[in-house]
Structures are given as C-alpha cells and as structure tokens.
Amino acid sequence: MFFHAPKDIYGPELLRMFIDELGGVQRVRKHLGVTERTVYRWLSEGRPPRAAVLALFWESQYGRSQIFTEQVNEIRLLYRQVCILQDQYQKAKDIITGLRAMHAGSANEPLFEELPDLGHQQPPTFDADAALPLPLEASAPIQNAPPAPVSPRATQAMQALERTRAAARR
C-alpha cells in the first residue's frame, strides 16, 4: 500500500508549522540529520527542500491522520469484500444442496461431500479495545428492476432446495 502525500505539501510556512508542532528546531534538526543553522537557513531563504517538508509532514498529526484514514478505508473495503464472498459462497452451497436433492449425480460430486462452513466469526487478532470496521450499508433495491435471468435447471434446483428445507422444518 502506497501513501501519497498531497502535492501542495511544500514551502516555508508548512516547514514552520511542522517545526512548531514537532517540538522546535532542535528536535527537527535531529530528526532530519541536519544542523540547526541549516534549518534556520531554510526558513530565512524561504526555499526548504521538499523532501525535508515531506519528512516532517509524515511525522506530524496531518500525515499520521492521512495514513490512519487510508488504513481504515482499506480495512472497510476488505471487510466488505469478505462479506460479499461469504454471501456468494452460501448461495453456491445452497445451489449444490438443491442439486443433490434432485439426485442429479455428476462426476465431480465427491468434491462437494464436505463443504466447509464459513458462517462462524473468528475473534479479532488485533487489539481487543479496537473497534471492528462497520460493514457498509446495503444499497437500496432498484425499483422496477427486471429480475436476473435464471436457467430452468437452476430454478428446479432452488425449488428442490425449498422442498428440502420445508421437509427439514417439519
């Protein structure tokens, strides 16, 4: 994952702001590995190196905030993708169960004998006090949308699945 600094992070005003935030010229010069005189020269000439300003940006609250925000957004995106994949897996598993109920044997049927259950939630392995990312809200269904095309064989499989579920509930 790459962190991209905003393009406008440059200039003596930002250098001065980062110096003040990070604890003064002494701390900044140690962090950058330059002399105190060099830092003062950058401020007086008004042309600090962009690399120095960027280095201080990532150490400031603004840079850390940008890194944290990008991490949270990536976690939420990945979490949502996992939820979608689990839903797709469950639908495929239901279709296979329906096909089995129809006794439509196939050559690869032994592969589906033991389908793992992905419904359980593992506890988080990170800090227990950290909040889990919230799943994104499901989008509202589109009104008057045509139904997705379904093959007759899939329709039969789903009907067989429904009959199986109904029989299991009795």
Which helices and strands appear, and what pairs or packs with what?
Blueprint: H1 12-22, H2 25-32, H3 36-45, H4 50-59, H5 61-101, H6 152-169
Helix pairs in contact: 1-4, 2-3, 4-5, 5-6
Describe this entry's structure for a reader.
- The protein has 170 residues and is mainly α.
- The protein is 58% helix and 0% strand.
- The chain has six helices and no strands.
- Helix 4 crosses helix 5 and helix 5 packs across helix 6 (152-169).
- The longest helix is centred in the middle third of the chain and has 41 residues, at 61-101.
- The model has no long low-confidence stretch (mean pLDDT 78).
Provide tags for this entry.
mainly alpha
Radius of gyration: 29 Å
Shape: rod-shaped
- Helix proportion range: 55-70%
- Number of DSSP-assigned strands: 0
Largest sheet geometry: none
Number of DSSP helical runs: 6
Strand content: under 5%
Overall residue-averaged pLDDT value: 78
Question: Order of SSEs, N→C?
Answer: HHHHHH
Low-confidence stretches: none
Distance between the termini: 52 Å
Determine the structural class based on helices, strands and strand pairing. mainly alpha
Compose a concise summary of this entry:
With 170 residues, the protein is an all-alpha fold. Helices cover 58% and strands 0% of the residues.
